[in-house]
Design a protein that fits this description.
The protein is built from 7 helices and 11 strands. It is α/β, with parallel strands linked by helices. It has one domain: Rossmann fold. The strands form 2 sheets. Strands 1-11-10-7-6-4-5-3-2 form a 9-stranded mixed β-sheet, sandwiched between helices. Helix 4 links the parallel strand 6 and strand 7. The longest helix has 19 residues. The N and C termini lie far apart (about 45 Å).
Length: about 300
Amino acid sequence: MRAKIYFASLLAILALALGSCGLVPDSETVMLITPSATPTWNPLTPTVKPTATPVNTSTATSTPTPYPTFTPLPPTPGPSPTPGPSPTGSPFEVGFPTVDGAPLAAALYSAGNRVVILAHQRNGDRTTWDRFARVLQKNGYTALSFDFRGYGASGGDADFNKMDSDILAAVTFARQQLHADRIAIIGASMGGTYATAALGDPLVKGVALLSSPPEIENFKVSTAALQIPDPLKYFIGCDADTLYMAGLTDMFKQAVAKQDKLHPVRAELVSLKCAAHGLEIFNGPQKERLTELLLGFVQAALQ
C-alpha cells in the first residue's frame, strides 16, 4: 500500500512539473485512448497545418450558393475517377435520395477518393460548412456537405426521427458515385448525433461530434456503435457549453468502458476553453485551434 501511495505521489509531482514547463496548454483539456503502441496523432501537436482559416459561418436563413451542377452517374463496378473541381474552384451541386424517398441537396468539393461528409447543426444548413469544406479540399480531401431533410435546398419535412437515414444516404452516395475508399464524418450538434448511425459501415473510418447531444427526439446514440473498436470517435466542445460538454463526456466514457487489450477503442475527447456551440466556435478565438483539431482528426481517420 505504501508503495502505491509513493508511486501515485511521484506521478502527481511529474504532472505538475510538465504543466509548469508549458508542455500541456491551459486552453483545453484532452483525454486520449489510442490503441496503437505508437500513436499516429496527438491533438496537442497536430501534424496537419491548415491552408486557410474559416471565417464567420452563415445561418439557416442564408441563401444557398448557386453551385455548378454535377449529374450523378449510375453505380458502376470497379474504380472510377472522382469528378474534379470546376474551373472556377466552386463546388458542384449534387443530389441524392434517402431510402424513404426524401431528396437531399449537397455541395461537392472534389479532391480525390478520401471523402469527408459534413453534417450541419439544427440552426444551419450545408452552407455553414463552406469555409471548412474549402480547407479540406485544399488539403487533398473531398468534402461533401449536405442539407438534412426539410433544411436548405433539400425536400421533405424536418423529421428528426428520420435524419439518421440522411447520413446513411450521404455515405451511400460517397461509396457509389464518388467511389470513396475511405470516409470520415464530421457533424455539428445534431449532425454529429445522427452521424453515429454510420459507425458500423466498413468504409467509415471516423466520426467527429462537435458539441453533439447523445439523443434527439427518439434517436439515441448507440452505445454498441460507440464501442466498435476501429473507427476513430472524436468528441469536441467548449467547456462553458456545459450541457453539451457533459453529453460528449458521457459518450466518450461509454465508448471506452468495455475496451480491453484485445479490443481497444480509438476515442478522443477535447474540451476547449470557450462558450460557443458547434460551428459557432469558428467565430471565436478558438477557430484556428478547431481547424487544426478537425484536420488532425481527418488525417488520423483517413490515413
